[in-house]
Structures are given as structure tokens and as C-alpha cells.
Design brief:
With 410 residues, this protein is an alpha+beta fold. The chain is built from 14 helices and 8 strands. The protein has a 3-stranded antiparallel β-sheet. Strands 4-5-8 form a 3-stranded antiparallel β-sheet, with no helix packed on it. A two-stranded antiparallel sheet has the order 6-7. Strand 2 and strand 3 form a beta hairpin. It is globular, with a radius of gyration of 26 Å.
Amino acid sequence: MKNLKDLKNFKGNLRGADFGLTPVNTRKHSKNDIPKLSPSEVNVTAFIEQSSGRKLRKNICSVADLPDTDQQEFILGKVRQLRENAAVSETSAAGAEGVRTLSTLIKKYLIEIVPNQKDAEGTINKLNFWNDALGNLTLPEITPQLISSKKRELNKTRSGGTCNRYLGSLSALFTHAIKEWHWTSINPVTQVSRFKEDSGRIRWLTDEEREILFKYLETTESRELKDLVIFCLAIGCRKGEALGLTWDDIDFEGNQIHFTHVRRRVLCSEVSIDEETEKVVYKYDKNVRDQGLKNKSKIKVISLDDPAFGPLITILKERKLRLQSESEYVFPHDPRHAWQLLIKRTGIKDFKFHDLRHTCASYAIQAGKTLLEVAVQLGHQSLVSAKRYSHHDPKANVGTGAAVASRLFG
């Protein structure tokens, strides 16, 4: 075995090995940077396989702290010790229901289940709230009354809908504990009432509000925001679908856009246990492009084969000339902060970026489009979702064809 302290000869970790090298600061450095780092900036990390099949990462020591000789024997001895400790922890966690705490259940769920979820970050934040609120209690001590009390406290700073999402995460945790791990037989969340929500909230821009929005779009310093807003408003796609587009997805000759992927802000790529605090630590990949659309759809094709889409096609062609050499994405960046600033400046109340999609659908209905046509445009798998727009301005009828684009650009 080569001297691990000689990092310039590091070629990468062996697949399936019991240990490997990882940067101390994983946010700043990747494994490819290890040959350029000092021994104190690199950890020796053990890979401990659990009964669930997931591997935990536990730091043994820094490379600088390794002995100069017999390094492999030293490391493997530490790995064996960590394996024994992990086995004891799993056995203890699987003890009687009366001694299992909510904190223990949450930790197991965070390690084994949450990393595979697409919105892992959102679930983590919600379960951390419940861990802080009730984590020290055993599972039988978690009553509907306690959960209701914490729900009311949460409602002081969160909307009713958001509180319902927090309850949903806790309920999913208990359901998994019942059906998969058999840790308990009762889900106390099922006996807690949810807040009443406005089903099918629809917020769309009036013509006056749209004129105000376009006026301030002309003054924004973010070209990315201006083009993205116009695109999503004209097409009616979700923001994630727009951000997932590459130039290969746009057929300028056939005047078609093929939506096949979405881009997410973060996706969990690695989970480990902090050796000192014993807390679950996640590493995220940013701007991950996932295949497939919402509602399990694989593709959505939008036609631009109408003169009304001329201004939008011009915007896309200009972007391609400017950006194709820099990025494969049509919209490389998510201008979230620029959007928040824009809405604040316009004074338009209660309007979110996703409401651009509602606006597109509402304009189409007002222009005489059928529910089926709207469903196809937005990518709904049934007419149920499209029916939400059917009552909007039923007297208005400005023709068919590319009605939304005509209203925007005409």
C-alpha cells in the first residue's frame, strides 16, 4: 500500500473499498481536488454498510494524523470498530416500542428513506421541526393532542397550507414505521385535523396587471428573468420544465418544443453521520436535470407553428446566438431573487411565479379554447385540473389559434 500522505499520487477511491479519501471541506473541494490539497485538508473516511443496504460515511481521521507506517492495518482496525458500533446502534434502535423515541425514528428515516426523495431538502426541514418539538418523547407518548398543540404553534408563523405539509411529512414517517419497520402500530397524525385550504387556488394577471408587469420587466437588469417570464407566460409550462430545456429540445425548423426533463434546485447525493454531533449530514447536487415531467409524463410537445409565436421564436433564437457556446441550457440560471424584487417593485399582490402558468391557462379559456386544448397545452393528464379555469371570464372570446400568444404580443 502506498503512503496515503503522498496525495499527489491519489488516483481515486477503489470501488467497493471499506475506506477512501474525501476532502474535509466538501462544499469547496471535490475528490478531483485531493492531489492538490494538503494532508490536513483530506479525511480518511470509512464506508459502513447497514442492514438497509445504504452505506454510511464516518470520518476516521485526517490524512495528516495517519501513522507513517502500517497505515492499512491502522485504518482497517478503525473500520472494524466503527462497524461494531454501527451494529450495536442498529440493534438498540430496533428495541421495544416503548423505548424508541421520535428522534430515533426520524434519524433512521432521514438516513434510509429521505435521500431518495426528490424534495429531500423540504422533508428534512419539516422533520427537523418535529424532532426539535417532540424528538425526546417515546413513540407511545406522541399523542394527537401534542401534535395539535405544536400545529397551532407552527400556525403562528406559517400558513395553514404549510402547516398541513408539515403534518403530512410526520404522517408519512409514522406510516413507514408501521408498514415497513413495524416499530409501532398507531399513526397519531391521522387523528389530527388539517387546516382548511382554498382548493385549486387560481391567481391570474388581469390585462392591467400584465401591462404593469411588462413595464417593469423592461427596466429589470436581469435579461434571464425577462425572457423566462415571457416564455413561461406564453407557453404555460412549469418553471422547472423551462429550466430543464436544452437547445436540442427546440426544433426551430419544425417550430416545436419538446419538454422531457425538469431541473431542480437541489437533489440529495450523499448522506453521512457527523462523528462529533451524531447528526445526519447531507450533500446536495445543485441544478440537477431529471428525466420525466410531473404526473409521470415522459414528454410534452408544444407547437409554435403560428405567426402569433413570432416574437417568442425571435427571443429564443437571440438567446441561442448569445448562450449556446456557454451553456447547453436554454435558461441556464433560475432568477429567483430578481423575480422577488420585480414583484415587489410592481406592487402586484399575491402573485407567484407559478401563477404565470395559471394566467396562460385562463387567457386560453377566455379566448374560446376548450378544456381539452388547455389540458394538452399545460400537460394535464385529465380534464379535472383544466376545469379550474373554466369559469374565468366566460363572456370573453377573442378567437382561437395561438390565442395566448396573440394576447401577449399583439
